[in-house]
Fold this sequence. Notes:
With about 140 residues, this protein is α+β, with helices and mostly antiparallel strands. It has one helix at about 5-25, and strands at about 30-40, 45-55, 60-65, 75-80, 85-90, 95-100, 115-120, 130-135, 140. The longest helix has 22 residues, at about 5-25.
Amino acid sequence: MSIAAAAGVVGLLGGIAIGVATTTGGVPREQIVAEAALDALPGWTASGSARVEQTPDGRRVVVVDLDAPADTSLREVWLLKADASGLVSIGFLDGSTGRFALPASVDLAQYPLVDVSAEPADGDPAHSGDSIVRGELHPDT
């Protein structure tokens, strides 16, 4: 192979590597597909945010950030229908930030509200009715 051809191949490969590194950091990234501001419900002084990220392989994750006074109750994260007639628990928030896998069967158009509730440690899987914050997911544009 001639020196010019070898230099051309090295330059091409280097350009591709730099392009990949600068556009994605070499790692595929999550895309934010929806976001919500979480506002306090009566009786609570709290706020937060939620976002839905979609991974390159199509999985969705709900990321919740909560700013609320510490208490002794469990904090459960839910998705609710707009009229609150149906709900899906997606997990318990440990600390102020959590990441929750969103089941593929959950349609965010049907469950657009993110709710964080205070739950007693009583073993009852139902929503306590004591919501700390709630907000509606809006598509990220």
